[in-house]
Known about the structure:
The chain has one domain (2-108): Monooxygenase. 82% of the residues lie in helices and 0% in strands. It has helices at residues 2-30, 38-57, 61-83, 89-97, 101-108. 13% of the residues are buried.
Amino acid sequence: MILKIEVLGWAGTALVLAAYVPQIHHLYVEKCAWGISISTWLIWLVAGSVLLSYCIFRNDTLFAFVQVINITAIMATIILARRGNRICPYHLKTALNSGDQKETVKRAA
Protein backbone atom coordinates (compact mmCIF):
# COMPACT_ATOMS: atom_id res chain seq x y z
CA MET A 1 0.00 0.00 0.00
CA ILE A 2 2.82 2.43 0.86
CA LEU A 3 4.43 1.79 -2.53
CA LYS A 4 1.17 2.72 -4.30
CA ILE A 5 1.01 6.01 -2.39
CA GLU A 6 4.67 6.67 -3.20
CA VAL A 7 3.95 6.14 -6.93
CA LEU A 8 1.10 8.65 -6.62
CA GLY A 9 3.54 11.18 -5.17
CA TRP A 10 6.04 10.67 -7.98
CA ALA A 11 3.25 10.96 -10.55
CA GLY A 12 2.31 14.30 -9.01
CA THR A 13 5.96 15.36 -9.20
CA ALA A 14 6.04 14.49 -12.90
CA LEU A 15 2.90 16.57 -13.45
CA VAL A 16 4.47 19.56 -11.67
CA LEU A 17 7.44 19.32 -13.99
CA ALA A 18 5.25 18.89 -17.07
CA ALA A 19 3.18 21.93 -16.11
CA TYR A 20 6.22 24.22 -16.34
CA VAL A 21 7.49 22.93 -19.69
CA PRO A 22 5.14 24.90 -22.02
CA GLN A 23 5.78 28.21 -20.19
CA ILE A 24 9.55 27.83 -20.06
CA HIS A 25 9.67 26.61 -23.66
CA HIS A 26 7.68 29.64 -24.85
CA LEU A 27 9.88 32.04 -22.88
CA TYR A 28 13.06 30.41 -24.16
CA VAL A 29 12.12 30.03 -27.81
CA GLU A 30 9.97 33.12 -28.41
CA LYS A 31 11.60 35.42 -25.81
CA CYS A 32 8.03 36.59 -25.18
CA ALA A 33 7.01 37.40 -21.61
CA TRP A 34 3.67 38.96 -22.52
CA GLY A 35 1.32 38.89 -19.55
CA ILE A 36 3.78 37.41 -17.04
CA SER A 37 3.80 39.05 -13.63
CA ILE A 38 7.32 38.89 -12.21
CA SER A 39 6.07 39.89 -8.75
CA THR A 40 3.71 36.88 -8.73
CA TRP A 41 6.56 34.55 -9.67
CA LEU A 42 8.75 36.09 -6.96
CA ILE A 43 6.05 35.38 -4.38
CA TRP A 44 5.87 31.80 -5.64
CA LEU A 45 9.65 31.58 -5.31
CA VAL A 46 9.49 32.66 -1.67
CA ALA A 47 6.60 30.25 -1.03
CA GLY A 48 8.53 27.39 -2.63
CA SER A 49 11.58 28.19 -0.50
CA VAL A 50 9.49 28.20 2.68
CA LEU A 51 7.89 24.90 1.70
CA LEU A 52 11.31 23.41 0.91
CA SER A 53 12.48 24.39 4.40
CA TYR A 54 9.40 22.72 5.85
CA CYS A 55 10.03 19.54 3.82
CA ILE A 56 13.65 19.39 4.96
CA PHE A 57 12.59 19.90 8.57
CA ARG A 58 10.07 17.06 8.23
CA ASN A 59 12.56 14.78 6.38
CA ASP A 60 10.09 14.47 3.50
CA THR A 61 12.31 13.54 0.56
CA LEU A 62 9.57 13.35 -2.06
CA PHE A 63 8.09 16.77 -1.39
CA ALA A 64 11.53 18.31 -0.92
CA PHE A 65 12.33 17.03 -4.41
CA VAL A 66 9.09 18.55 -5.72
CA GLN A 67 10.03 21.90 -4.18
CA VAL A 68 13.52 21.78 -5.69
CA ILE A 69 11.91 21.23 -9.11
CA ASN A 70 9.41 23.99 -8.35
CA ILE A 71 12.10 26.48 -7.30
CA THR A 72 14.28 25.63 -10.31
CA ALA A 73 11.39 26.09 -12.74
CA ILE A 74 10.29 29.33 -11.06
CA MET A 75 13.81 30.74 -11.24
CA ALA A 76 14.06 29.75 -14.92
CA THR A 77 10.73 31.44 -15.59
CA ILE A 78 11.80 34.65 -13.83
CA ILE A 79 15.16 34.79 -15.60
CA LEU A 80 13.68 34.07 -19.02
CA ALA A 81 10.78 36.50 -18.49
CA ARG A 82 13.18 39.28 -17.56
CA ARG A 83 15.16 38.73 -20.77
CA GLY A 84 11.97 38.48 -22.84
CA ASN A 85 11.84 41.74 -24.71
CA ARG A 86 9.40 41.14 -27.51
CA ILE A 87 5.88 39.97 -28.19
CA CYS A 88 5.48 36.77 -30.14
CA PRO A 89 3.07 36.73 -33.10
CA TYR A 90 0.48 34.75 -31.13
CA HIS A 91 0.31 37.21 -28.24
CA LEU A 92 0.51 40.21 -30.56
CA LYS A 93 -2.53 38.94 -32.48
CA THR A 94 -4.38 38.28 -29.22
CA ALA A 95 -3.58 41.76 -27.90
CA LEU A 96 -4.61 43.44 -31.15
CA ASN A 97 -7.89 41.52 -31.16
CA SER A 98 -8.60 42.54 -27.57
CA GLY A 99 -8.62 46.23 -28.50
CA ASP A 100 -5.54 47.16 -26.46
CA GLN A 101 -3.78 48.31 -29.61
CA LYS A 102 -2.02 51.46 -28.34
CA GLU A 103 -0.25 49.71 -25.47
CA THR A 104 0.50 46.67 -27.61
CA VAL A 105 2.11 48.71 -30.38
CA LYS A 106 4.24 50.57 -27.79
CA ARG A 107 5.45 47.33 -26.22
CA ALA A 108 6.03 45.63 -29.57
CA ALA A 109 8.19 48.48 -30.86
